[in-house]
Amino acid sequence: MADELQKAHLYYDNINKIRILEQDVLKDTEDLRDTCREYETKVKDFGKIISTLLETLKELGENVEKQKMAAIGTMNLLKSITKQRENDQAKLQSEISERSMVLEQLDAEYDSLQILEASQTETIEYLTSLR
């Protein structure tokens, strides 16, 4: 009778129930199903990990972009300060040159006034001696 059932593709299992699949094929199918479920769970877990990683990378990227913009702003400020200092230095150098020229003029004027004073003192002494 078992041979006749096998010809009709019917089989008995361990508890003598009639099955359409052989016991080995049934076990392999159940193992494959369990393996597929485990694989599916692992794929879902992997997807969650990837999503978390992408969110973290996005946050890091935004943070890096903020830091980059802050650094650019700081560099621009530093360049501006440097340029301002150069302008101030040029202004001061120009003022020093201008005051040096005024000093030279005043020195020359002082020297000429000393000569004039000496000349006038000599004239006054000469005129006082004539009296």
Q: What does this entry look like structurally?
A:
This protein is mainly alpha-helical and 131 residues long. 87% of the residues lie in helices and 3% in strands. It has a two-stranded antiparallel ribbon with strand order 1-2. It has helices spanning 2-7, 23-130, and strands at residues 11-12, 18-19. The chain is built from two helices and two strands, in the order H-E-E-H. It is rod-shaped and about 170 Å long. The longest helix is centred in the middle third of the chain and has 108 residues, at 23-130.
What's this entry about, in short?
By secondary structure, this protein is mostly helical. The protein contains two helices and two strands; from the N terminus they run αββα.
Give the topology.
Elements (H helix, E strand, L loop, with lengths): L1 H6 L3 E2 L5 E2 L3 H108 L1
Antiparallel strand pairs: 1-2
Largest sheet: 2 strands, antiparallel
Q: What are the secondary-structure elements, in order, as H or E?
A: HEEH
Question: Per DSSP, what share of the residues sits in E-state strands of 2 or more residues?
Answer: under 5%
Low-confidence stretches: none
Q: Quote the average pLDDT.
A: 89
Q: Number of helical segments?
A: 2
Distance between the termini: 175 Å
Instruction: Give the number of DSSP strands.
Output: 2
- Rg to the nearest angstrom? 53 Å
The rough form would be described as rod-shaped
Counting helices, strands and paired strands, the structural category is mainly alpha
Strand order, largest beta sheet: 1-2
Helical content (DSSP H or I, runs of 4+): over 70%
